[in-house]
Amino acid sequence: MQSTMEKLKNKASAAKKQVDIYKAKIDEKTEKARARTKEEEVVAHERAKAKEAKAKMELHEAKGKHAAEKLSTKQAHYYGTQQPHGDYYEGNQPFGSIPKPGTTAPTYPLGGKNILRNNNHI
Questions:
Q1: Which residues contact residue 32 at a Cβ distance below 8 angstroms, ignoring those fewer than 6 apart?
Q2: Tell me, what's the pLDDT at 53?
Q3: Are 42 and 48 in contact (CB under 8 A)?
Q4: C-alpha torsion 95→96→98→99, nearest 10
Q5: How far apart are CA 106 and CA 63, in angstroms?
Q6: Are the CB atoms for 70 and 3 separated by under 8 Å?
Q7: What is the predicted pLDDT for the residue at 113?
């Protein structure tokens, strides 16, 4: 679902697209007015079509960027950070690794008791 900020950014991008299309149509009309041959009119029309397509492409790129921005803020909030090589770390030591000699590693679960779900203790 879109956030309010994403909707506003998308509406601004859509408005920019409409302005770009309007500019392309004005340019096409001026080029056609200056044209001396039929071929120059066709070239003017093709340029206008290319500008319209570019405006639509930029709109879709902007929408994708807005969605990615929203997703990146969610990921940073919910998933935390990741260390190099994709390993998840607890402190300075990867999960499941053997402790360095001379150090003590805690036994899990902490406290030495087996803890079951719903606060049922053995």
A1: 40, 41, 44, 45
A2: 96
A3: no
A4: 30
A5: 48
A6: yes
A7: 58
> If pLDDT is split at 50, 70 and 90, which confidence band does 22 have?
very high
Q: Residue for token digits 């000699």?
A: 101
> pLDDT tens-digit profile of 83-94?
555 444 445 555
Q: 115: which residues sit within 8 A by CB, 6+ positions away? A: 109, 121
71-92 average pLDDT score: 55
DSSP 98: P
Q: Report the interhelical angle of 38-79 vs 4-34 (nearest 10°).
A: 170
Q: Residue 13 and residue 94: Cα distance in Å, rounded?
A: 45
- Say what the pLDDT of residue 3 is: 84
Name all contacts of 30-36 with Cβ < 8 Å and 24+ positions apart.
none
